[in-house]
Amino acid sequence: MSKALLDTTVLVGVVLDRQKQMRDDVLQFASRLVPAYAVKELRSGPLTHYVWFHNKLAQSHSFAAALSALQGMSRTPRRYRTSTAIAALQAAFVDIGHLTHPGLAAQYGKLATQDETVADSVRLSIKQRVMSAWRRRYAIATEIVRPLRCYEETSPTENRGLLEIKRLECDVAGGECSLAEIVKSDPDLLEAMRKAVLNTGPKNAENEKRARALHEIARKPRESIAPGMCRILGDAIFVLLCPEDAIILTTNLKDFDPLAKAAGRVVQRPDGSRS
After folding, report:
1. Does the pTM of the predicted model rise above 0.70?
2. What angle do CA 157, 158, 164 make, to 5 degrees?
3. Quick one: how far is CA 138 from the chain centroid?
């Protein structure tokens, strides 16, 4: 197939992590579909986590202190924020790895400590990646799938050295979720996806919530979808948005496989692998 729908993991890999090989693999597809829902997840997940670590560096002016905050975060249930902040750190060192000690001294002054210079170098790299990723969020797309009228794509901003990325809730006042029509169009498919998640999907709390949501919508297709329900459906949204003549590109085959098979869709990694 020459048409591919990109999930959030691929969008992140291309525009935020800047994985050149992944970008080249994606560009092999003549038609590249980027759902607005993937941008919503990019903003509320990875970009927000990058901003969190940027601000820890900006507030402390210390690389050691920011790492201490990251270590503290690792002890909480917020494992996605921890892993994404580590990814931000890794990406930053790719950007600044060429800097030399004389170069740092010239930029920050001879009295600046190693801790301060590394903290600021990493901070600036993360800031640049956040702003660039947002500007380029649709750059690889040949088609934007299902713009979300109930969700405003507000850009990250900077205020007194700190990045701000507002937490926006779905705005369904006077209407319904922008995805409601496609989500509720086939209750039998929702039930098939629910059974696939429970029978062959990974056993975790996220999939249990997804299965319950699929069942609830299938059982009451005439009722409005509650704000935030699309977040619970997660990977199922991409399967429902994928045209019959397209494949789904993801790095998360484990969660996508049961859903895709239930809907008769093909899912693979950008490099074409299935494992």
Report:
1. yes
2. 60
3. 13
- Is-contact 130 163, C-beta < 8 A? yes
- Number of neighbours of residue 163 by Cβ within 10 angstroms: 22
Report whether 260 contacts 4 (CB < 8 A): no
Pairwise CA distance, residues 205 & 247, whole Å:
27
- Rounded Cα gap, residues 164 and 242, in angstroms: 32
The tens digit of pLDDT for each residue in 80-139 reads: 777 777 777 777 766 665 555 555 556 665 556 777 888 888 899 999 999 999 999 999
152 contacts: CB under 8 Å, gap ≥ 6: 168, 171
Q: Using an 8 Å Cβ cutoff, are 228 and 151 in contact?
A: no
Domain ranges of the chain: 1-168, 173-263
- How many Cβ atoms are within 10 Å of 70's Cβ, its own excluded? 18
The whole-angstrom separation of Cα 74 and Cα 55 is: 17
Give SS3 for 107: helix
